[in-house]
Amino acid sequence: MALPSTLNRYLLLLAQEHLEFRLPEIKSLLSLFGGRFSNHQEIHGKSPFWILSIPSEDIARNLMKRTVCAKSIFELWGHGKSPEELYKSLKSYPMEKMAPFLHSDTTYKIKIHTFNKTLTQEEKIKRIDALEFLPFEGKVNLKTPQHIFSILEDYGLDPNHIPEKPLNIYFGRWIADGQRELIESYSVKKRHFIGNTSMDAGLSFIMANHGKVKENDIVFDPFVGTGGLLIPSAHFGAYVCGTDIDYNTVHGLGKASRKNQKWRGPDENIKANLRQYGLEKYYLDVLVSDASKPSWRKGLFFDAIITDPPYGIRESTRKTGSQKEVPKGIEKCPESHIPVSINYHLSDMFVDLLNFAAETLVLGGRLVYWLPVYLPEYTEEIVPRHPCLKLISNCEQRLSSHTARRLVTMEKVKDFEDQDHYSHLLDNQFLPYKGLNSFREKYFSGVTKRIAKEEKSIQE
Ligand SMILES: C[S@@+](CC[C@H](N)C(=O)[O-])C[C@H]1O[C@@H](n2cnc3c(N)ncnc32)[C@H](O)[C@@H]1O
Question: Which GO biological process annotations does it have (predicted)?
Fold first, then answer.
């Protein structure tokens, strides 16, 4: 298909981690920055090389200011399945597009990047020398060049069968790197306040990107825990708030989660975490509150809801309430009632979460959350639906051989009306999936372990 003249081709070099999460991240970010994800993209599933066709270098730069899934982006000057094909394609790249980066008062450097193979220094120099036909008029500067060009060679995905010759070769002008270093700088290992279920930094940034969080947004986490999911949103300039049913977590009290420490110290709380990263000004507040009984007045408050609800594995799924009959008169004076907690079924939790998101998100706002699933029973139909929320993406992260969690992203596409509250009772397609309720038993059941053992012995 011919490329429309309004689009340019860029080569995206992706990290080989969290593969399923990459496409929704790139799509979300492109739509955030006004680069529609047209059908001209050349996305090669698990490959680290994708060719994106987007309208401008500005969009490419904005994308790289946010992505944690991609390492670098290049303006693509040529591509082939052999050196000859690459040179032919380079010769047909418009000279007027190359010239500004090649003229005599510029400095430059050429780098080689290989995937699934290491080249010797000699082989690298050969590759560079073979590009002599390109009209480089500037001076080589290895330390601080104005322009960096890269030859990228792709030797496929199988480390046990590395082909002699590359499967694909690309040449491009480097434009920008992504935000991979955030994974290290925001690592949970170096964070003041953490809990047993604090989310890994890379995945939390991916969640904020799937949520299309942007500057001055208001982002909410109803199951906030230690606030790990608020941090990436604040890093991207959004104001953040949350609730949790656990008083100790919200107040930074109680037992510490680190090995060598018994009790949480004075600076172990969500606000101090944000302070640690210079993001305190984005902290709105966190409250002790039960997500099953939201205490918000009616209104559209949030640009995104990004959350990791409890699945009952490392934290209990509880809500306020009593198993006993409601004592007489309690409805009349609820303030005298001291709530105890009862089990919060996962199926109810997700109905509540979707209803809450549908009610409080702005139109176009996104809900991003994790859904635990038992793999033998999983089909896409069990992912909860809501008439106001459109399913955008649904990516798997394996937890064990038979369990996984899925990162679900939904976008609010319709104003909430009173009857939408009961959609899960009125319409089959919005029925909650009751199988979720036994996730904990299945996770811990001997069945899971036994099947894993059997699978292992079959493989041996
Ligand atoms: C998976 S953890 C969230 C971890 C969090 N993302 C972090 O970075 O620490 C789930 C949290 O939900 C809280 N929770 C459980 N039931 C709740 C309820 N009914 N309402 C609000 N929070 C609840 C738990 O106390 C726990 O802190």
Answer: methylation; tRNA processing
